[in-house]
């Protein structure tokens, strides 16, 4: 059931809930347009997806167009990751996941089988700087896809204007209360 000339895209999200959800939606759009999609997850996120969601049935209708691959993230299995430890996750993934990512790309480009076309494009989270070298090594197109929320994007785009206007950094009690609430809400999630 392999489409003879369908592009084959490898999606590699940052292994956090928001980026994975965004990339899964992108995968559905690609599959509904008859592109082949390989979705690269970390082992930890894949276990959570399978135990907490209906992701298997969600993509069952795209048989022949969609498949999961996994790599370890390099962190201990019992480690609970918080937003403050994102740097540790990225360092660990570059050390542990990069060789496996390279092998998945190599095999997808050079050793395509009857079920999959050769890899034509990698869409990786913008945090994965190492994807540039791998894509260049195998001559595969690379696009970075940042899965930032509209609110986060607006904040980034507005930061310079707020600094120039003297409105940031925020001053006074309101900022302290807001920061405490934000920190507490992150800890609850």
β-strand percent reads 5-15%
Q: What does the overall shape look like?
A: globular
Radius of gyration: 19 Å
- Quick one: how many beta strands? 5
Task: Note the run of SSEs as H and E.
Answer: EHEHHEHEHEHH
| Poorly predicted parts | 180-189
The whole-number mean of residue pLDDT values reads 81
Largest sheet: 5 strands, parallel
Task: Classify the helix fraction into a percent range.
Answer: 40-55%
| Spatial sequence of strands, sheet with the most strands | 3-2-1-4-5
Can you count the helices? 7
Structural class by SSE content: alpha/beta
- Alpha carbon gap, first and last residue: 42 Å
Indicate the topology:
Blueprint: E1 8-12, H1 17-32, E2 36-42, H2 43-52, H3 55-58, E3 66-71, H4 86-110, E4 121-124, H5 131-138, E5 141-144, H6 150-164, H7 173-188
Parallel strand pairs: 1-2, 1-4, 2-3, 4-5
Helix pairs in contact: 4-5
Mind explaining what this structure looks like?
It is a single chain. The chain has a 5-stranded parallel β-sheet, sandwiched between helices. Helices cover 50% and strands 14% of the residues. The termini are far apart. It has 189 residues and is of the alpha/beta class. It contains 7 helices and 5 strands.
Short description:
By secondary structure, the protein is α/β, with parallel strands linked by helices.
């Amino acid at each position: 059931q392999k489409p003879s000339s369908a592009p084959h895209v490898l999606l590699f999200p940052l292994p956090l809930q928001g980026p994975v959800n965004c990339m899964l939606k992108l995968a559905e759009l690609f599959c509904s347009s008859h592109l082949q999609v390989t979705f690269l997850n970390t082992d930890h996120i894949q276990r959570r997806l399978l135990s907490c969601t209906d992701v298997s049935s969600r993509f069952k209708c795209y048989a022949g167009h969609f498949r999961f691959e996994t790599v370890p993230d390099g962190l201990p299995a019992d480690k609970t990751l918080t937003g403050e430890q994102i740097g540790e996750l990225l360092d660990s993934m570059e050390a542990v996941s990069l060789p496996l990512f390279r092998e998945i790309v190599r095999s997808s480009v050079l050793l395509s089988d009857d079920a999959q076309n050769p890899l034509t494009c990698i869409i990786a989270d913008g945090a994965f700087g190492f994807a540039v070298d791998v894509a260049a090594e195998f001559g595969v197109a690379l696009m970075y896809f940042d899965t930032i929320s509209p609110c986060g994007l607006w904040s980034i785009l507005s930061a310079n204007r707020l600094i120039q206007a003297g409105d940031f950094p925020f001053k006074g009690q309101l900022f302290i209360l807001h920061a405490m609430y934000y920190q507490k809400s992150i800890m609850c999630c």
